[in-house]
Design goal:
Largest sheet: 2 strands, antiparallel
Low-confidence stretches: 1-10, 24-41
Distance between the termini: 29 Å
Shape: globular
Strand content: 5-15%
Helix content: 55-70%
Radius of gyration: 22 Å
Strand order of the largest sheet: 1-2
Number of strands: 2
Structural class: alpha+beta
Number of domains: 2
Length: 183
C-alpha cells in the first residue's frame, strides 16, 4: 500500500529569471512504497510508530536522567575539567540526538517486528544497546581523558538502558494475535 511521502527533488531546469540552466530545488509529495515510510506492513500502523517513538524518547530521557543525573553524577563532578565549560548551553543537542535515536530505534524495530512479545524487545534492545554502548563508551574512552571505569560503567549502563527501551517498544507493539483457526 503506497501513501504520500515528502521528498526533495532537484533537477537541472532553465531559470525563468534569466533563461540559464540551474539546479532548482522543490519539495514535493510523491507516492512511495512501504519499504521506506510510512509503515503499513505486518500490522504496524503510523499511529503505532508514533506512539513507539514517543514512548522510546520518554524512556530514554527518564533513564538518562537516572543514569547521568543520579548514578554517575558524583563521578562527573570529580571530573569537571574534562567537560565543556558551556556544556549546559549545549544540552538541547542531546535532546535532538535522543529524538533521532528514538525514531530510528522504533523504525528498525518495526521493520523486523515479529510479534513475539517482551523477549523480542529484550533481544532487540541487547543488539541495539551493544552497538550504541560500544560507540558511546569505548569511543569516548579512546578520545577523551576519562577513567576506564567510567567507560565500563557507561557501556553496561547504556546496554541495560537499551534493553529496557527494547522492552518498552515491544510492549507498545505487543504480541501478534494467532490467526483464528479455519472452520
Amino acid at each position: 500500500m503506497a501513501s504520500g511521502l515528502w521528498t526533495l527533488d532537484y533537477r537541472l531546469r532553465t531559470s525563468q529569471l534569466d533563461n540559464q540552466p540551474r539546479y532548482i530545488y522543490t519539495c514535493t509529495v510523491q507516492e512511495a512504497d512501504d519499504s521506506i515510510l510510512p509503515i503499513h506492513h505486518r500490522g504496524v500502523t503510523m499511529k503505532k510508530m508514533l506512539i513507539g517513538v514517543v514512548a522510546v524518547f520518554v524512556t530514554i530521557e527518564v533513564l538518562d536522567g537516572i543514569i547521568h543525573g543520579g548514578i554517575l553524577m558524583s563521578t562527573y563532578m570529580a571530573m569537571q575539567g574534562v567537560w565543556r565549560a558551556d556544556m549546559m548551553a549545549k544540552m538541547w543537542v542531546l535532546h535532538v540526538v535522543k529524538l533521532i535515536t528514538a525514531f530510528f530505534f522504533t523504525l528498525i524495530f518495526s521493520k523486523g517486528y515479529e510479534g513475539k512479545g517482551i523477549m523480542e524487545g529484550v533481544r532487540y534492545g541487547c543488539y541495539m544497546g551493544a552497538i550504541i554502548a560500544a560507540g558511546f563508551a569505548l569511543g569516548s574512552y579512546a578520545t577523551f581523558p576519562i577513567p576506564h571505569m567510567l567507560a565500563i560503567e557507561w557501556f553496561f549502563l547504556t546496554l541495560a538502558e537499551y534493553i529496557i527501551v527494547g522492552v518498552v517498544i515491544a510492549l507498545v507493539y505487543g504480541r501478534k494475535e494467532a490467526p483464528a483457526p479455519k472452520a
